[in-house]
Amino acid sequence: MRETEQDKSQGAGAAADTAVDQLSVAQAQAELVRLAGALAAANRAYHTEDAPDISDAAYDALKRRNAEIEKRFPELKRPDSPSEQVGAAVSDGFGKVRHAVRMLSLENAFDDEEVTEFDQRIRRFLGLSDGAPLGYTAEPKIDGLSLSLRYESGRLVQAATRGDGEVGENVTANALTIADIPQTLAGAPEILEVRGEVYMSHADFAALNARQEAAGGKTFANPRNAAAGSLRQLDPEITRDRPLRFFAYAWGELSEPLATAQMGAIKRLSQLGFQTNPLTVRLDCTADLIRHYEDIEARRATLGYDIDGVVYKVDDLRLQERLGFRSTTPRWAIAHKFPAELAWTVLEAIDIQVGRTGALSPVARLRPITVGGVVVSNATLHNEDYIAGRDSNGALIREGRDIRVGDWVQVYRAGDVIPKIKDVDFARRSAESKPYIFPQHCPECGSVALREPGDAIHRCTGGLICPAQAVEKLKHFVSRGAFDIEGLGAKQIEMFFADDLLPIREPADIFTLAARDQANLAKLSNRDGFGERSAKKLFAAIEERRRIPLSKLLFALGIRHLGETGSAIIATHYETWPAFEAAMTAAQIGDGAEWDDLTGIDGVGAVMAASLVTTMQQEAERASIDRLVAQLDVQESRRVVADDSPVAGKTIVFTGTLEKMSRAEAKARAEALGAKVAGSVSAKTDLVVAGPGAGSKAKKAVDLGIETIDEDGWLALIGGA
């Protein structure tokens, strides 16, 4: 991983060894800083550059910890939350393909208890008892490159990589060279999108590297890199010469169902001529799933291709449809991952990086070492306490062994893009080594770095005068999910920030840049990396982003605790920028109608709400936002619903126990019909659905004269809508 991206992702946050249920709010915030940056760097390396520095197991475990923290602290969800992202943006070298059905990632499990919890979670959602029958399929998780194949009238017309889940790369010409991929199908649905994994066997990988070395060409680090690099060649003839294979295991758009069950659909794909994994089985309980996992793990070294776990899916496709999806993962599937790996190396230095929120993040510089097939040279050190051998509560970790420059350290890759240091070898410590002293001043601007009581991290107090914080905020502003301005990435932001002739010091400067005169266009044209054509192209790309959805604007502002999901929720509730602006300006933290309305939004907690209000009422920050909005055309955020929806636009509160569907299912149904689901009753509530055990919310609804119905009334109201 490249140093600048890798290091800046490191968090001075919570001790990562601390269980999620034991994290303080401050620890959770800091840990999410570390996770977001690390995952963003990993996505670029893995999906865009075909040069991953970590295994899929390490990446997925990291994502899992992020999700667990967000689940416990939903109000802390970051603007750049990895839980709202799939894959990475497509390369400029290929045409873009928008997937008719999104290609999502999978939730992960790392032990038997999490597999059991997955089963119980599904049963709760569906209202099934522990003894009720519920079948699953189990299949090896191939460590390769995801590919979607679109067939129309039985002919392969398009092949696309996953990309960011919504838009992938058009690699049709390359896919046509892979023997495992049929070019025509007999008896297939009129429209059939087959999804699976492109991979390379161990034997073919070894032979390819031998040929490459003999010819003086590039060799590959592992089979996954080789497969990804081979499929994403701009010259299909190079792909043709590479020994690529393909396993089919899923589907996207269909003109007619393949079967009624997952296992039946896999068999149908096999009958159509696709290679499907022979180790895929149907099982009836979690104990059988775990036994199958253990069997696959024991046979892993003999399979002849790389896998990093076993994927479990609910077999009944009707139940899959009912369970539906989260923002980036299906509820009905999970990947049970294999264990991580360890290695020993020397800690050569400790550096401090400053993040967007001012967090001082210690990063270990390691003597390069290969861990599980990946060369690593950096590790997270989390915070001052972790280095000293203490957890957030002062208890000893590593039996109190501190970490010092020159130490031999054990590197652990279970879920960290930049691995963490698990232990220290005291027997090899130099007698001249000295304890590490954590800096009390920001290395970027010299401001005092304070560690507030109860917080695990030091923060630079420089605010807007700290160049590191300003640059990182601008990088977030132009990132994918935010304004995503083509040609204006992290490298260009750094260049413009340091430029005295064409400076970008705050977001509004980006849009005034494109409006400057010809003299400034000429100045940009003469800069390294720019010519007149590329300068005009950048200005045009900036102009295209003046028109922006409200949700993307909110996310781009980088307000603490407000991620993409929270931004979408807020945008849907207030619908327009003037309405949001007026509400935040009038709100008083902890009191008043506007505050009650804000915190009553389902998914908005007091911490997120306070962050929104504070940001919009802080004089300097608000002035910067106002200068930005003056340059933009902010679009309304209105929910598109069916004309016959009986609850479209209504605000609904569910309270008490629902007996015929789970609370999650009821909420999902209401939102699909265009309703807003709130967590508390207020004067703006239109309808309360009260089940047995309804308490204060039902009483408040009566006091306010709000219509209240029971679950049967709710089902009758929505009917077949």
Helix content: 25-40%
**Strand pairing plus helix content: what structural class?**
alpha+beta
Strand content: 15-25%
Low-pLDDT stretches are: 1-15, 87-91
Strand line-up in the sheet with most strands: 2-11-10-3-9
CATH homology superfamily of the largest domain: DNA ligase/mRNA capping enzyme
Name the CATH class of the largest domain.
Answer: Alpha Beta
- How many strands, which pairing sense, and closed or not: the largest β-sheet? 5 strands, mixed
| CATH architecture annotation of the largest domain | 2-Layer Sandwich
**Total domain modules:** 4
- The total of helices stands at 26
Q: Which descriptor suits the 3D outline?
A: globular
CATH topology of the largest domain: D-amino Acid Aminotransferase, Chain A, domain 1
Average pLDDT rating = 85
Tell me what the structure shows.
The protein has 721 residues and is α+β, with helices and mostly antiparallel strands. The protein folds into four domains: 3-85 and 340-428, OB fold (Dihydrolipoamide Acetyltransferase, E2P) (Beta Barrel), CATH 2.40.50; 96-327, D-amino Acid Aminotransferase, Chain A, domain 1 (2-Layer Sandwich), CATH 3.30.470.30; 550-635, DNA polymerase, domain 1, CATH 1.10.150; 651-718, 3-Layer(aba) Sandwich (Rossmann fold), CATH 3.40.50. The strands form seven sheets. It has a five-stranded mixed beta sheet, with helices on both faces. A five-stranded antiparallel beta sheet has the order 14-13-12-15-16. Strand 15 (408-412) and strand 16 form a beta hairpin. Helix 2 packs antiparallel against helix 3 (56-72), helix 15 runs parallel beside helix 23 (619-629) and helix 18 (550-556) packs across helix 19 (564-574). The longest helix is centred in the first third of the chain and has 24 residues, at 25-48. The two termini are 50 Å apart. Mean pLDDT is 85; it is low at 1-15 and 87-91.
